[in-house]
Structure formats: structure tokens, C-alpha cells
Fold these 2 entries.
Entry 1:
Amino acid sequence: MPPGLPGPDDGGPAGGALLSLALASMMDDVHAHAGAVYLLAPDEPVLEMAVTAGLPRAFAAPWERIGLASRLPVADALRERRLVWIGGEDEMARVYPRIALVLPYPYTMAAMPVATDETPYGAIFVTLAAAHPPELGGLERDLLTAACRRLALRLEREAAAGRPVRREPASPDAGEIAPRTAATALVQAEHMVARLPEGLCALDVHGRVTFANAAAAALLGVPLKALNGVQLWTAMPWLNDPAYEDRFRGALISQRPMSFVALRPPNDWLGFGLHPGTDGVTVRITPAPTVSSDVPGERGEHVGPGDRTGPGPDGPARLVTISHLLNLAGALTEAAGVQDVVDLLAGEIVPAIGGRTVALLASEGGRLRVLGHRGYPDPRMLDHFEGLPLTAPTATAQVLVRGAPSFVESPQRLAQLYPNRPAVSDGMASWAFLPLIASGRAVGTCVLGYPEPHAFSADERAVLTALGGLIAQAAERARLYDIKHRLAHGLQAALLPHTLPSPRGLESAARYLPGTEGMDIGGDFYDMTGVGDRVAAVVGDVEGHNVRAAGLMGQVRTAVRAYSAAGQSPGRVMESTNRLLVDLDAGLFASCVHLHLDLPGQRALVARAGHPHPLLREPDGRVSVLDVAGGPLLGVEGDACYPTTEVPFPPGSVLALYTDGLVEAPGTDIDDALAGLAGHLALTGHLPLEDVAEGLLAHTAERRGHTDDVVLLLLRARTPVA
């Protein structure tokens, strides 16, 4: 048992320092320099930051409250009950791009669930220096897993005793730091010397000065005693720029040296070298002759007043605000449809700001339309707003008309502002009504509800107002996507058969899955029809993934059906369809496999045009790839020939026709994919064909990733037909 962490059966702190001790012990085990413990909120699927160590809490401000459904490391760790390891900034940018956007520094991270077999309690993350190997060691993994297990057992014990552990008090801020004594100054000076022998200034993890020598004070132009306990960027106005604070954050998180150059008015350039440790940062301050001169020996970029990242007339924006907006903006870029926007707001953004409900409303024809909502005790309450005129005396309508946000801190204030509003209650106690303005026009309203009266600070109002603009852009983009999506699926549905015929002696099942790119419409198709005493079936794929490909697909399908109805053999059908495509000169090609089933004769007549070979499962369960002779793609050569191949098709046989989207994927060997498909068909081919179809799609889903359309048509011969 690591020292300092009480076991599940011994005495020790309950609540007050339990989490801190557990986190500190874990960080010591793996030599982490920072971390945090999250606990599940009692009455909602939200993780709340309970205690932090090693970094200022403000660094993680965008993630103080995290919806359990969020795509973030601690949420993934608890939701999936696994250890999440991020081995560097490249992997962070690939797997969790929103974190990389806010904290674009090199470091490694591990997130672990805190849960027993029956009960989830929370999650923990620890960050390690960028110099850590990209893989987590086995011993490190075991230590972290065991520590989280011990903490979960202790939390279970405290909960059973009626002492549930809650968030621990935060460390004092810069205004509460105790005066520096000679002893503490000596300790801090020793720490600084250990990090950088000629160091001149030491900062704690919050950026507060814990030691400075006379030379540092002289270079900065302030009395030495004025530096004790203050942050450099708040003590000197010319350093009060997020870009400079960003270098401090980068050094702390990555545990790598960084540097920058700043202008001390009127014309003194100073170089700042930042040398991080687990307990703070040593700063070396030196005169810099010119802006282009470097601070030798460190990694860093020159940052001067011309590189400001957003100060306004009231002073520079704080990094916590910028971090919030970056995080929210990154989250909204992941939303495709309107429901995605609503779900993302409800699952990630609303919990982060302490809210409970969210509703999106749009303006259509002078009236309100409810696009989506989440979190309301009675969802039917929103029905009242559907079709409400924009002239209605409600905050939802008036905010949209005026284009200005409204922050209502209590029900009493709501009654004062909108005395004639309808008497409808959503169960909330305060609200933020945000106009959604896109391309210079108001397109809707976002309503955020809080369960308790809430005082909106100036900073919070600014963040929420900016958030309204981000939501507006995301909502407009999502509505356009939904419109295109409905159009695409309507067209696709019109071009594919609604049902398949059910001839005696034949069982069939078909599936069509659109790819995820473009408008979800493409050239894959299937069809089946009766031709005299035979059954004709076809599966094909017109190249492309757009409306043009879909239109040509409809022509090919119609041509195959017409030529089959005219009594042509499968090979002749392919030849006639090929000449039609050449004559159309559409500039697109198509692959196709077409067959006639002679059920009384227990045979299949098959022709193929550049298409994947069908699979045949014989009655004894053996599966083979049919070596069907074929010709080139349709539309390439006007005089191409397509031979017809006869294949035995006795009762109990299953034919599988498919498009290449089922078996082809980047980095996948086609032979291996076909072998896997055949093996699965051999094992499951005796089941009802609907189940077989679902099983084959599920078997290939992870590999193919839905990057292309997929068509699957299964045909099974039953008892002989007289």
C-alpha cells in the first residue's frame, strides 16, 4: 500500500484529504507532475472536478464539469471502464482534438476510472512530462489501476457509512498567499537553484512569485517586495497578455523549457527563459538587445506586443475565457445534424456551465419552430412555443427579434421583464436567452436553463454571448446538412426497390447502407424481378458518390430490368446495358453482376461486368468464391462480350451478391476480407436470411468504417418447384 493513502479497512481521513492523498500518492508512483480527481454528481450524469494538483485549477476551467457522454479522456475512462492513455501531442490532436486546441503543448496523459464492479464513482487523470516514452509501462499501468481500485473501495466505504466524499476546498488564490518568511524564502531559493543555477525568479504552479532577487526586480522595474505572492502578468501591465501566460502554461504542462521576449516600456526588450519543475517554474530574465535575438538554450518563440491574441479596450482577455471558447468551438465543429448540435450542447456544454436544460428554436415564416431540446422535466412544455408568432411577449421571441441576449437571474426577474408572457413553467430558476445570429441575421434562439437562481458575471455574459454566435453557425450548417440528408435519402429510396418479390421456392434479403461522405447518396443498387418461370437479380455499382452517379444508377437498373423482361440471357443483358452506357456517354462506368435463377432446374445463370465475385454457400455449409467469367466495366467498350456461367443452385444453397464497399477498405487485403466474409457465411448461413444479412454487415462494420456505399443481396433456394 503506498504511504499516505488509507486502505479500505483502516482509519484515515474521510472526505477532507482523502482525494488529495490518493492523487498525490498516484502522482508519486508514476512521477506525474499534475492531475485531478473527478466525482460523479449525485443526481446527474456529470463529472465534477473535486481536487487538482500540480497545475492551477484555471488551466482545466473548460472541463470543471464534464458530461459523462463527452468525448474526453476522463469521461471515456469511466464510461468504458478502461485506462485511457495519450502518448503525446500528436495523439492528443488525433483522438481528442478539442483538448489539443485549448492546450496545444507536448505532454502525456493517463485517465482511469474510479469504480467498483457495481458502482461508478468518478475518474482521475494524471499528466506526465513530454519526455515520457509514448507507451505507458506495464508497472505504471498496474500502479495506476491498483490505486484507482483502492480509492473506489474507500469511496464505497464512506458512502455506506453515510459520509459521501465531495469536492475538496481549492487552494488559496493569489490574494490569500501567506507572507514569505525567511525560512520559506530560503527553501524556494534552493528549489530555484536546483532548477537553474543562475535563476533569478521562482514561480509556483499558479504563476505567483515565491522568490526573486534584486536583479530581477531591477530588470522588471518594480520594488522587490512588490513581487512577493503576485503573478508576473498581473503585476506588470506590459506582461498582461495571454500570449505570455500561454508560455508559462506550456512550460508547466509539457515540463519543457520555453522562452519569449517582451517589451518593457518604453524601449527595453527582456528575454524570459522558463525552466519548469513539478513544483513550479524558474524564470531567467535577461536583457534582449533586439526582438530577433533568442534566449539561448531553450525551446520557444518570440512574442511581443505585435503578437497579441485578443486584448480589447477593457484590457486583455483572460486565458480561461479563451480556453472556454476554444473548447466550445471545437465541440460544435463535430456536430453534423441539428440533433447532433442539441445533443452536444446538452451533453457537454450545458454541464460545463452549470446549466440543466437547453432548447434551440428557429424562425420560419414569422413564427418559432422548435428544432430540439434536452433536459426538461416535461418535454411537452416546449410544444407551447411551436408556431408561436415572433410578436409574442416572450423572451424566446423577443431576443430573436431584437438580436440581443437576455440574462434572467430569477423567476421574479423574468416576470418583471416579460409580464404578459404565457403562464408556462419549465421548472428552471434562471435563464440565458441567446440570439442565434448567422451571416448578419437572426436565425433563432438558444435557451439555457439553470435549476437555481444564477447571477451572470460580466465575463460569463461575454462567453455566453460569444457561444451564441458559435451555436448559430453550427445550427445553420446543421440545418443545411439535414435538408441535404433528407433530399439524398428521398432520392435514394425512390431509385431502389421498396420490396422484393417472394417467388415460390426462394428466400431473399437485401441491405443498402450509404457511405458517410458527401450527401449519403451514390451509385450502388440492387433489384430482383420475375422473368417468366425464372427470377432475375442484379447488384451493381456506378462510380461516384453524388446525384449524377445516382441518376445513372437509376438508368442502369431500369435497363437491366427491361432487357431481362425481354427474355435476354444474363450475358446479353450485360452487353445491351453496356452499349446503352456507351451511347449515353455519361463519363461514368459501372460494375454489375446479373443472374437468372432457374429454380426448377436448380441452377443459376450468372454474368459479371467488372464486379466482385459472388459467394456460394452449398447445402453442406461449404462456402466458395464463384469464379465467374466476366467482361470489363459497363460503359468502357461498346463491343465488349460478357459470357454467361452456369452454377448449381440446389435447395439449401445461398448466393451472396454484394458491392465492393462490403469488403474493401484502406489498408485491408481483399483476399483476407473475402475469406473472413466467407467464413462468417459458412457459420451463419443456416439462419434466417434477415439474420444472416445483419450478421454479415456487423462482421465487416469495424473494418470498412462506412466510407463507401454497401449493397448486400442474399438468395436461398428452398424446396424444388414442380
Note: The chain has a mean pLDDT of 80.
Entry 2:
Amino acid sequence: MNSAVAPGQTRAGTGRGDLILGAIGSGLVCLGSFGVGDRPRNSPVLTDLGLSWITYGHGKNLLGITFWLGVFLMVFAWVRLGRRIFAARRASGEAAADAPEADDSPAVPSTRTMSRWLLLWAAPLFVAVPVYSRDVYAYLAQGAVFGAGFDPYADGPAHLPGPLVDSMAQVWATTTAPYGPFFMGMLRVVTEITGDDLVLGVLAIRLVLLPGLFLSLWAIPRLARRFGASPQAGLWLALFNPMVLIHLVAGPHVELLMMGVLVTGIALAVSGRHVAGTAVLALAVSIKITAGIALPFLVWIWLADIRSRRPVATRDVMTVFASVVGIAVAVFGFWTLVVGLGLGWLTGLGWADVIINWFTIPTLAAHLVTVVAAPFVALNLQPVLEVTRMIGSAVLAVTLVVLWWRHRRDAHDAVAGMAWAMLAVLLLEPSTLPWYYTWVLAIAVAFDLPPWVRATVVGVSTFMLIVFQPDDAIVFYKPFEVALAAALAGLAAWSLLSPDPLRLGRLGRWVWGSTPDDADSREPVAGQKA
């Protein structure tokens, strides 16, 4: 056991208080969601329980305060936990957080401890009212349409009117499903069991997505250790992130399952189990097609493994290419045949154009063009969007090919290429939503990220928790709210790099005298001297 204590740490300073604080915040988010979340429409449940008062007036305001206090506590605890992890890692002078004995270090919680606490953070969100999105009701409606004999790749949920369609975002009522055959099959099974019961349906959806969380807990530390990164930092980045937890578990979203299967396939591939890794990654593709961006990079991982034992021959290259393609086609084809829906999901992918926000470069460029041109000519946003998005798609296609070819040196380089490719999709596709960022975060755990990158993740995550509202409203076209969100996000990012950036601790010492927290406020972080 390593009994060394990092500079600036005390033996009691293991981060347990931060973990407890985050769990309390999660509980408050759950409680607040019953007043400000995306409740089922036309549902008599709260009225029958005598709790309808929490959905309006002072009751709703009180639970709104509760919700945002919970979000604050989760972000606060997340940032403090991150500071502790990176301070301990920097103070060690080497990759101590990766070593087996580092799990017993008093300076930072072990990966096992963090995994247990992650489940405690997630547990209240599992029973929360859906927040930030009504997608879960769309999942149920699409599954019900499939179960009723329609083709969800050709027929929208509006073909089967009822409480499921009433509760989903109406913009999607006539659109077709963009999800892979495996996930569509799961949705059909869920709705055949739960019927029109929205409460049971939401809980059932969360239950079928839950394996993604356990797979992530298994795979993320292994992927991080494989490349010398900190497993604790990986868990902190991709799972303790309040944006990820709240959107994926309380949301809930299919990305929870896709992320777990995706990172598991990558972890298997880089550990030398290439056939299993390719098959698992192909399963991720049959959940959501975006996972397919990672598949071509498995070729380089497989060839790098062969190169580590002997020179790579032309026959090896051809065999590996054929194996990756063959396994992926076999797995995806199997689920396509089992579900019996064919390739109609390709049509559903085009509905992403309906979403308009300035979080992607093509959409931002369209907005800027219309603003700059306004003094001279009135341009309608939609035709400009068509042009900028077409250019963005062309640039994205070229970028993905270039990234795939350039990141072929070894397994580490190939995984880096995966991360850059996922980021390119986020930046250049027609639209991006907060839960899409998990595509990058789940892969980025393999690297020791610079402090400014970690701070950027904190800032973007905090910003996304504010500009998207728990009742599915959006404020990213309201200047004051966006400015406030940016200020709070900047403060959160700054807090990761510099404890107590506003020097509020001085006020506390002036009012109450020295406190036990003073030692923590002087905790060394990356970029500071111990």
C-alpha cells in the first residue's frame, strides 16, 4: 500500500466530502425534477397523489430552486474532485494514479471507490422525472408504432395517437426513427410490456440503458490504464460530469447505452481482443450509427498489434481490412434481419436538420452571414443554412478521411484519431445537442489532457446545463441568459485551475477566522507549485 500523502493534502482529504456533496446534489436534482422536469402531458398521476401544486406557482418555484441548487452542488463537487485528482497526479511526479498501489493512496479516491460513488450519484436520477428533453417519450412512441405493425423507419409516431405521442416533442411526431435495429428492437419489447403507461415506460427505458453505465465503469479505467492515463481522471471526465449524468440518466438518452458499448469495444480492441472489440463496436453501430465513425480506426489498432510481433505484410493488411468489414457487416446484418426493418434508418438521419442551434460551425456560420448581410439585404436563415450545412458536410467527409489516414501509426494514435473524428462530427454536423458530447468524452479518457482542455470541458458542460432548461426550453438565443450562462461556465472552468478564484475564502476567514477548509483552498493544482 502506498501511504504517501500528496503535498497540500491531509490524510482525511480523500475527497469523500466532495463525493457526498455530489450525491446530495443529485438527490436535489431528482426532487426538483418533479416540479420543473418534462412530465408526461395529460397524466393524472400527480393530481391523484394530491401533488399537482408542485407544478405551478410557488410550488414550482420552490422545486425550481431545489433543482438548480442540486445542479450547483453537483458541478461544485465535480470541480473540487477534479482538482484533487489532478493535484495528486501532478504531485506524484509520474503516472502514479495509474499504478495499482495508487488506488490505495489517501490523496485521491480509488477507482473502485469512485465507481461505487458514481452509482450513488446516478441512483436518484434513475427515478427522476425526465429533464432537458422529451426524447424518452419519442423512444416509447417509436417502439409502440413498431409494435403496432408499422415501420418506424417509414411511419412516424403520429400513426398511433395516444398518451405516448401527446407527451413527446411534437416536432418529431411525424418524423421517422434514426436509431439502429438493435435499439429499435429493444424499444419494441419495452412498449409491448409497458403499453401506454408513461411512468413504467420511462423506468423501463432507463433500465435497458443502464448496462451502458456499467460497461462504461468497466471499460473507461481499462482504456485509460492501457495508454498511461489516470483511470480516476477518466471516470471524472466522462461519468462524474454532471452534464453527462443528468442528460444521460435523468434525460434519459440512448447515448448512455451507446457510450458504454462503444468504449467497451475500443477497450477490447486495444487490449488485443480484436474480433471481440470489432463485434462489440458493431453492436454500438446497431444502436446508433454515429459509433461507426470509430470502426475504420480498428484497422490501424489491429495492424499495430501485428507490427509489435513481426513485420506487417500485404496479406496482413488485406486480412485485417476484410475481418473488420466482415465482422461489422455480420453483426449489423444479424440485428437488421432479426428486427426485420431493413436500412430505413438512413432516412431518419436527415431529420437532424430540423434542429437549429449555433453550437455547430455550419449553423453558426449561417447566423453570422445573415447578421452581417442584414444592413444590405434581408436573407432568410433557411436557404443560407442549406448552403453552409452542405459545405460543412463536404468538409466533414474530407476531414474524416484525412484523420483516418493520418492516425495510423499505432494504437494510441488510432484512438486519438477516433476522438478527433468524433469532435469533427460535433463541430461540422447540422446540429449538436449536449448529450452528443459523450461521443468524444468516452474516448478522450485514454489521454492525459492538458489543464486548459479539462477546464474547457468543465466550462462547456456547465454552459450546456444552463442554456438548455430542465423543461426542454432553450435560452441560447436570449443574450442576457447566454451571457449569464457563459459567466458561470467561465467561473466553473477557472475554479478547476485555481481554487477559490473569487477569493471568497478570504471573506470567510475575515468573518469567522481560519477554517479547516483553508488547507483545501491551498491545494496544489496542475500548473501551480506545490
Note: Residues 134 and 168 are 5 Å apart (CA to CA).
